[in-house]
Amino acid sequence: MNEIILDYPKLIVQRGPLGVVEVVANHENDLYRGIGYAHAYDRSLQILMMRTLGRGEGCQQLEDSTEMLAIDSFFKRMNWTANLDQEIEQLSDRCRARCEAYVDGVNLRLRERFPRLLKLLGHQAEPWHLRDSFLISRMTAYLTLAQSQAELERFIVQMIKGGVSAEALEDLFPGQLTGLDIEAIQKLRLGERVIPEAVQWHPLLSPMMASNNWVIAPRRSASGQALLANDPHLEGNRLPNVWYEIVLRQGPKQGQGASMPGLPGLLIGRHQDLAWGNTYTFMDTIDSWIEDCREGQYRRGEAWHDFKVRTEIVRRKKHPDLELTFYENAHGVLDGDPTEAAYYLSTNWSAALSGARSLEAIQSLWETETVAPAMQQIGQV
């Protein structure tokens, strides 16, 4: 028997006997309003914690500890709250209406009940905003996908700095390091390290992530229909789970799949016309450059140029606020202080200011009926 969670004009959100939430609506905006309500009903703590961390406000809103300070500093460095309003302006009218309906659904639930744990921690209640979903989009894309590439590349740099030979590196990464300038890397001064020096050769390092999917042609299946399997390798055993399973019914259209709390749409799923999945192919989305720095500047040829200086404040509950200074140029954020003469890395992620195209692509799959346009759209997710 279904449990009615929300009975709203032209919208019903209910939980089926297996615990999976179903959203039933006649209009697409109401459908997305229902998705937002369902996410906030079951995962409000999750999405609000994600927003707090993404803003670098953990020491202010949650726990003022050394560990949380490191997390806040990381997110302040990444600066994923930048350019959000400009990205929102790039949404089509239709996508923006659906996203705003999603936000309305989240806030409808938050007004009914705000997570008690956050209240106990002194978290200040704030409505969900459309820019928050863009922030979640950036966090999800980097932390579950691109970060593995960034850490692996940084680990290689750290091994070179630690004296690992070119021959040993070739054994570890055969054919992947052609053109690597080991002498230049050895000159680097590293600030942030992937592996702390005290445990850099510990045998229990975290395993690398991967994912896969595959398709069985209709002629090879008993039903005569194509079969799609998708294994995105994002842990299903963590609490809360990365994924949120949901069933969607909009008029005669029906579908189901896995969404992520905070994002308005199905990331992987199916409806009567199409099934789609996502896997990470380890695309090269992160690049680093070696910068020759002195007196607060970096060198290009024989000329010296100023960095763009960005100052961030980490607000803290129990300690004085901390001011962080980041130095940026077209190559990204510098890992060091250019007022101290040295060679440093500057690093940039190609999707650092993304959002609009991803949300457009996610939502377009709900209307797509054939494979060819779906392939174009899913490449932008």
- Rg (C-alpha, Å): 23 Å
The number of helical runs is 11
Tertiary shape: globular
Q: List the strand order in the largest sheet.
A: 1-2-3-6-7-8-9
Count the beta strands.
16
- From the N-terminal CA to the C-terminal CA, the straight-line distance is 36 Å
Name the average pLDDT: 88
Describe the 3D structure.
- This protein is an alpha+beta fold.
- Helices cover 36% and strands 23% of the residues.
- A seven-stranded mixed beta sheet has the order 1-2-3-6-7-8-9, covered by helices on one side.
- A hairpin with a 5-residue loop joins strand 2 and strand 3.
- The chain is globular and about 70 Å long.
- Mean pLDDT is 88; it is low at 197-208.
Compact summary:
Helix content is 36%, strand content 23%. The chain has 381 residues and is α+β, with helices and mostly antiparallel strands.
